[in-house]
Amino acid sequence: xxxxxxxxxxxxxxxxxxxxxxxxxxxxxxxxxxxxxxxxxxxxxxxxxxxxxxxxxxxxxxxxxxxxxxxxxxxxxxxxxxxxxxxxxxxxxxxxxxxxxxxxxxxxxxxxxxxxxxxxxxxxxxxxxxxxxxxxxxxxxxxxxxxxxxxxxxxxxxxxxxxxxxxxxxxxxxxxxxxxxxxxxxxxxxxxxxxxxxxxxxxxxxxxxxxxxxxxxxxxxxxxxxxxxxxxxxxxxxxxxxxxxxxxxxxxxxxxxxxxxxxxxxxxxxxxxxxxxxxxxxxxxxxxxxxxxxxxxxxxxxxxxxxxxxxxxxxxxxxxxxxxxxxxxxxxxxxxxxxxxxxxxxxxxxxxxxxxxxxxxxxxxxxxxxxxxxxxxxxxxxxxxxxxxxx
Length: 391
Fold this sequence. Notes:
The N and C termini lie far apart (about 50 Å). β2 (about 145-150) and β3 (about 155-165) form a beta hairpin. By secondary structure, this protein is α+β, with helices and mostly antiparallel strands. The longest helix has 27 residues, at about 265-290. The model is unreliable at about 1-10 (pLDDT under 50). It has 13 helices and six strands. It has a domain at about 15-220. The protein is globular. The strands form two sheets. It has a four-stranded mixed beta sheet with strand order 1-2-3-6. Strands 4-5 form a two-stranded antiparallel sheet. Keywords: Coiled coil.
């Protein structure tokens, strides 16, 4: 894809909705490309090469819909009516705010896809598969990404991920839906997971008893992530051609001359400008590799799974507990590994993110209230403490 480099001043990104919308618009084409590139691995006929992916990206950019059809497995007959009703309702009732929240989720999903494969953001090692879910599983089953862990015995453990940016009230509703599932002794089902067959082709596979978690962060942190990510997406060269470089440098040289800047200083500044462009791209990649949000997301997964286990235990759904515990073990292992690999993370506790990220705080408070309500239902002899810690 041809991409124009636009300099964004990170210090002013929070100042207005216009700046934030500008940032989202800069990042969205890259997010579409990341998603469609992932889909192309199991939909090769529709996304056979870079040109086909670019065309699909342009189609998404031109669409005004929040939910749109995209390449992938055909929708099952039993899902068709429900999907069409849900899709049409979402698109018809969508507000500017809802479109913005959807765009935020789309970009965060793409960042996660990329950072998982580059830096294992949510795992202790590379023994996993991560894919964006089919649009039908997204709309009908509130799951954006499917993470499947593998172990040495060849067995697999799936985890559904819902990327959500919402106010506390909406976050509460989403968490309550998942907690109600657990209370009922149920977990999620996904119907469109790609699995490779013996011939090397991908087939649609249904998976069930899949725990689903929400991953999120507050807007200031997301803004920082997107600003860094768009810098990593800069073309390798600052200019697309030698001709463009010569023209731009000539314009800048004349501008500096008009300010009375000596020739030697002009040449120095031009060289520094090109060097800064390359350095900023490299620095942005390194900042993402080391970004604390990966630990925050792991703690979000941890506290949700711990809460779900307490709910399942209260209802005596022991088969559900076993499934939840296996995923929690994977998350705990990833946290331990992250702290081992990046010692600075040792100082970043749940309490740190509770104090510094409003959305994280909302999640913990909602889960704490739920666990506290369970405690009240227990006998007075049960001294089991409430969830997480007091703040």
